[in-house]
Model the fold of this input.
Amino acid sequence: MLRKVLPTSSAVKVARKCVFRNASTAAPIRPRICIVGAGPAGFYTAQYILKHLDNSDIDIVEKLPVPFGLVRFGVAPDHPEVKNVINTFTKTAENPRVRFLGNLCLGKDFTLEELRERYHAVLLTYGAEQDNTLNIPNENLQNVLSAREFVAWYNGLPGFENLNPDLSGKSLTLLGQGNVAVDVARIVLSSVDDLKKTDITEYALEKLSRSRIDTVHLVGRRGPLQAAFTIKELREMLKLSSCTTRWRADDFDHVEESIPNLPRPRKRITELMVKSLAEQAPNNVPPAGRCFQPIFFRSPVNFVGSGKVEAVEYVVNRLADGRAVPTEQRETIATDLVCRSIGYRAVSVDNHINFDARKGCVNNAGGRVLKRNLTGSDQTIDDIEDKYETGLYASGWLATGPTGVILTTMNNSFGVADLVCRDFNSNTIWLNGSRPGLELAGRPYVSWNGWKAIDSEEVRLGQAKGKPREKLTHIETMLQIASNASD
Done:
């Protein structure tokens, strides 16, 4: 439910098995940990700590009223199997040693200093939510968006419901060839009848039903051997009903002869591309229905248009040691809508975070946050003494940059959580007194029961439309529903 005051609990009972004790008494001190961010990194970290750190208590603090982060707002609506991890996260959240505190924002409702005073350890896991930009001429033209914005729009992230992308033109250009770009291509080119069975937002479904886009270009700066999308994503595109995939044969010069020497994952996806190329109709036969067109060896250098984007000018690249090297050749391709998909970066939400603005992530070594002012040798980080902020950690994309899939985040988060457990067990984090946790008086937060009420309402709304759920996108509505939930 939505709570404004947290009742004061009675004295903590002595646990049957107690590892941590106050130095001057026999009373147990329970490690109190705050995790900032309720996405995959936050939940995986909590899951590991619960299993490996006896008697620890964990608060998972999230700026939105709802949990699950990228799983809820990033995973494509037609990939429900990827969202099954929510079941595991729910088990973690419903552990009696865990509290979910939604609608509370670091840097706005509380500071990092406050958290460090009120918890024995703090883990920053709030992800990466800012787009990288190309920094080329006319990037601010109308109809130049980011794939992140487009995904947030159709997935119902609060604040993006009014994005209203212009789908009245005939073509969409996606700059970047990762899975996010392919997700956008697939959603735009999919049958609306198929999307009706997913949890895509109703406003996006209605907009896509009136879309006139029939061609999607997927443009990458390197070649087929360096394509970043996975074989699963490519297979889905090749099987898409009423859609033809059209490759450029010139992009595949000398590719087939390289296949025998490729690592197995790269070999399989390259074989699939070459097979699809061999089966496609001649270039003089126009594709029937919608068309998906991957284009390689191109880097955008200019957006062309007057007020609204009309084309993208590219430099033609060649490969040198796997790197894209620009040539003197140029190509301009007409388009009506552009989505950049060139990665994300985290932002610093509190002045006390040791943040690397250039890299877009927290300064850390293996998950331990580094001090701003280091002592000892200045030759290498490994030589520096007293280099870590005791009890402060980062995991997920905030620590590593936006790389990999959910499994990558899981492995990283488990590794950081293991550091936390080891630091408690070795007394690197000294339990010199209990910690009260976040002061919640006057702060309207959403409890786990509040989220369950929101969840139930979304499922109810979805069932009325034959969908798994209809996501609520207005925070005020969420808070009202949460406030009526029983504790």
